Amino acid sequence: QDQPMVLVAYFSQFGNTQVLAEAIADGAESVGGVEIKLLPIDQVETQDLFKASAIILGSPVYNGNPAPQVLEFINSWPFEGRPLKDKIGAAFATGGGISIGEEGVMIDILRAMLIHGMIIVGGEEVEAAFGASSITGEGPFNSSKNQELFYEKARGLGKRVALLALRLP
Ligand SMILES: Cc1cc2nc3c(=O)[nH]c(=O)nc-3n(C[C@H](O)[C@H](O)[C@H](O)COP(=O)(O)O)c2cc1C
Question: What ipTM is given for this predicted complex?
Answer without folding.
Answer: 0.99
